UniProtKB/TrEMBL annotation:
One of its GO terms (molecular function) is dioxygenase activity. The lineage of its organism: Bacteria, Pseudomonadati, Pseudomonadota, Gammaproteobacteria, Cellvibrionales. One of its GO terms (biological process) is response to cadmium ion. This is Catechol 2,3-dioxygenase-like lactoylglutathione lyase family enzyme. Keywords: Dioxygenase, Lyase, Oxidoreductase. Residues 4-128 form the VOC domain. The keyword Lyase applies. CDD domains: VOC.
Length: 137
């Protein structure tokens, strides 16, 4: 039997700001929300149509992440075109959260940029990787 990756859970400082970021920049939808026993809300976010495949869980009370520029840990989202990556990068720059300007890397990395979410996590938006929209296959 093989395991299936179903979710990623992050403790965050400001859950409302993180919800807004992932809705605005990644287009995720709020699919579940509840209060946990410790008194904070727990939310599940997912891509439309993929609610039963993979979710991002946000939990309250995180310490925040002061991720070093040399730490390339990140969440990755595929976009349907290079132009879509450019749009995200421009919005991120305008909002003061652009971490990695757009760049092209050899296969399988492709064209991408990176933003910092409100908790300090790097979030990559890419085109041309062998996964998701724009996959080179």
């Amino acid at each position: 039997m093989s395991a299936v990756l179903t979710h990623l859970a992050l403790h965050v400082r400001d859950i409302e700001s993180c919800i807004a970021f992932y809705q605005e920049y990644a287009g995720l939808k709020l699919i579940h929300q509840r209060d946990n026993k410790a008194g904070g809300e727990v939310v599940w976010l997912a891509e439309a149509g993929r609610e039963q495949e993979f979710i991002l869980v946000l939990l309250p009370g995180g310490p925040g992440r002061n991720q070093l520029d040399s730490d390339f840990s990140h969440l990755g989202f595929a976009l349907p075109s290079r132009a879509a990556v450019d749009v995200i990068a421009a919005r991120g720059k305008q909002d003061g959260i652009l971490a990695w300007a757009t760049r092209e890397e050899p296969y399988p990395v492709g064209y991408y940029c990176g933003l910092r979410d409100p908790d300090g996590n790097f979030v990559e938006f890419s085109y041309g990787q062998p996964l998701g929209p724009g996959a080179n296959g």
